[in-house]
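Appendix B, example 12.
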Amino acid sequence: MSAITRSIDCSVWRDLMLKSGMMALMDAQARDQWRKNLEEGDLLAISEENILSTFEQLHHSKLEVFERGIINVYKGLSWDYKTNSPCRLGKKIIINNLVTHNHWGYSLNWGWRRDQLIDLERMLFLLDGKLISDNRGDFTNRLVDHISLQKASYIYEDDYFSIRYFKKGTAHLTFKQAELIERMNDTIALHYSGVLARR
């Protein structure tokens, strides 16, 4: 009986998180922790009090979670490239190990790099005041489609990015909306005030 109750509670929590929009605000780290809690059944029993207290806590921490997504993208950049400034996000950043190339062509690498790019797109959507699409519509899935269909083109473009990828696995990501990058830099400045001056 307890296993059935735990399974029902997990289903209700999963549904509540999706319908509330909280999953859309979470960065990869927070989503992984939430999934782990679901898998292990490490969640509070469903009750009105527990739901209210959980969402109150999530509401209070949502800015921190949002900012962590930006910081993790910033910290994940390699400083080996001149365009990757250790002081700010510039108009263009260079990303290591985004793609793999072999005699069959290109493929997108999956894992933490993909999660970072999904977080980056999510931050841009939120800063731009747009609704976040579900994970089936994130730009890494569109990039996979582009790579598989456009054999002659090594440049992917959408409203926010232009991405040129190379055989050695790197990609040059150019941001199209400078004002959104400045707003992300303002967030970085809050956490690294000695590196990037606040505006």
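The chain has a mean pLDDT of 77. The chain has two domains: 2-61, 76-191.
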